């Protein structure tokens, strides 16, 4: 017997957390292995990278898909519990597969991340490179979701430190002592951090960091207040970073400023920047995609 596909774990995963208590990833894996009678040989099978077992990897992806559909939640890293919706699904006795999860908009948006404006093409109609590209996007979408969960657990002061650290990681103020600083939590005048824009320290970027709920929106009044804080510091460059979203009016206001330049980074963009600059994440596996060198065959032989 081979290790089941990740979507074949959906129902058993829900059974593993059906009591409503919080369970560790180890407890869930042990329940699934026992309930589905997975052999020791299959449990020992490793991915081609040799860094993780195939079983553990597929259970982890089952968790990601169920979480995206809202059937389970992750109260802390590596610990899961069933949601009210998950209980309803489990009680219904219906088969839980990919098609079933597509009834949930949050899952559908994730599952079609490579092409949200149109239905995803059948895999057999895609080239190998398109399949690889889609898989890469889904891995990053899942990673961004987990990364945001960790970011939202930070207290406000640590979130501000994270933002400054990200800018330093991106190369701002490189080579300068104390290139980035976080202002005091009280009496900061609307400025949460300051970072040097260039290696010589000629100018500074003033930062405001808002760790707001993911479904909330930063409106124009907040950007106006930040613009006023910049004027108070006689600053011309500002960066407003939030875990939430910006309203259309907020973006229009920032775009139309004349005396100062304010860049807006929302939660989605923040996750992309953290992943791109390896902040809070690490490289697990690297794949090289090679092509034929036609010059070698035409010129070198």
Describe the structure concisely for a colleague:
This protein has 13 helices and 10 strands.
Question: What are the SSEs and their pairings?
Answer:
Elements: H1 10-16, E1 23-24, H2 25-35, H3 40-43, H4 54-69, E2 72-76, E3 79-82, H5 84-92, H6 98-101, H7 105-111, H8 128-152, H9 156-169, E4 180-182, E5 193-196, E6 204-210, E7 217-218, H10 220-232, E8 237-242, E9 245-246, H11 248-255, E10 261-265, H12 267-276, H13 294-299
Parallel strand pairs: 6-8, 7-9, 8-10
Antiparallel strand pairs: 1-3, 2-3, 4-5, 5-6
Helix pairs in contact: 4-7, 8-12, 10-11
Characterization of the model:
With 301 residues, the protein is α/β, with parallel strands linked by helices. Helices cover 45% and strands 13% of the residues. It has helices at residues 10-16, 25-35, 40-43, 54-69, 84-92, 98-101, 105-111, 128-152, 156-169, 220-232, 248-255, 267-276, 294-299; strands at residues 23-24, 72-76, 79-82, 180-182, 193-196, 204-210, 217-218, 237-242, 245-246, 261-265. The strands form three sheets. A five-stranded mixed beta sheet has the order 4-5-6-8-10, sandwiched between helices. A three-stranded antiparallel beta sheet has the order 1-3-2. The chain has a two-stranded parallel ribbon with strand order 7-9. Helix 4 (54-69) crosses helix 7 (105-111), helix 8 (128-152) crosses helix 12 (267-276) and helix 10 runs parallel beside helix 11 (248-255). The model is unreliable at 114-119 (pLDDT under 50).
């Amino acid at each position: 017997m081979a290790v089941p596909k990740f979507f074949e774990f959906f129902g058993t995963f829900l059974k593993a957390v059906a009591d409503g208590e919080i369970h560790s990833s180890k407890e869930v894996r042990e329940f699934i292995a026992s309930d589905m009678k997975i052999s020791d040989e299959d449990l020992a099978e490793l991915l081609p990278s040799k860094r993780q077992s195939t079983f553990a990897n597929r259970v982890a992806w089952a968790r990601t898909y169920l979480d995206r559909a809202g059937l389970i939640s992750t109260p802390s890293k590596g610990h899961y519990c069933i949601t009210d919706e998950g209980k309803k699904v489990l009680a219904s006795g219906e088969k839980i597969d990919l098609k079933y999860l597509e009834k949930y908009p949050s899952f559908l948006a994730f599952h079609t991340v490579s092409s949200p404006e149109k239905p995803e093409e059948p895999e057999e109609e895609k080239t190998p490179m398109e399949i690889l590209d889609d898989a890469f996007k889904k891995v990053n979408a899942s990673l961004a979701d987990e990364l945001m969960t960790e970011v939202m657990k930070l207290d406000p002061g640590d979130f501000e430190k994270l933002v400054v650290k990200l800018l330093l990681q991106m190369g701002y103020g490189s080579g300068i002592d104390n290139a980035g600083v976080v202002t005091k939590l009280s009496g900061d005048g609307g400025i949460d951090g300051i970072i040097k824009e260039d290696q010589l320290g000629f100018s500074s970027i003033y930062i405001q960091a808002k760790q707001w709920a993911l479904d909330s929106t930063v409106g124009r009044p907040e950007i106006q207040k930040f613009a006023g804080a910049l004027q108070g510091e006689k600053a011309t460059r500002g960066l407003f970073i939030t875990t939430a979203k910006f309203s259309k009016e907020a973006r229009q206001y920032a775009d139309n400023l004349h005396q100062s330049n304010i860049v807006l980074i929302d939660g989605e963009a923040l996750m992309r920047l953290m992943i791109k600059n390896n902040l809070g994440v690490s490289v697990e596996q690297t794949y090289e995609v090679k092509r034929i060198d036609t010059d070698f065959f035409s010129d070198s032989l």
